[in-house]
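Lab notes, practical 5.
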Amino acid sequence: MNERNWLNPPTLRGRRVLIRPLRPSDVEGLSEAHDDDETLRYFPYGLESEPPSERTVAHDLACGRQVLTQIDTLTDRIVGTTSLYNMNEAHARLTIGYTWLAKAVRGSGFNRESKLLLLDYAFNVLGARRAEFNVDNENVRSRRAVLSLGATEEGALREHARRRDGSWRTTIVYAILAEEWPQMRLRLQPDAGAGDQSRKSS
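Output from the prediction step:
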């Protein structure tokens, strides 16, 4: 059972999704899951936007984000990662992102269930007041996916980060507040809607 602890990354389990802290031994599984050269296209410039390797996993373990491995419990295979970051217990806020998934689980509802688990953890376990998503303005697929959760688009941060190709991106900020979550949660229940179409959210 996860206690209210902002410092330690969680382990979360749903019907199909298992989310747990990244391990050094995940390198092989992550490398196999990275089956699309476009997967990390919108990730910020640096090791975060490079395909999985021992070097990138070591970086993720030391970067300050709570990097989480995503596992498909139907196959017991690693299918991607996601992260909790910008975590501030005093102000009860955090950001969810740096998410990527293998092609095999895109459009299957996996991402929707994953976000349900993460948001439940943020609001119902940590007691967060605010959960943010920061998305590249050109990443139309992820922007639609975040809006489908019920998040509110709050504004744009111009030239906020460099992309993988070195160009400067505008980051679109979305958020969900604690008082909004109970109603939004109903929309994310497994039987509440069709499978998601998300590729990545960064």
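Observations recorded by the TA: The radius of gyration is 16 Å. The chain has a mean pLDDT of 91.
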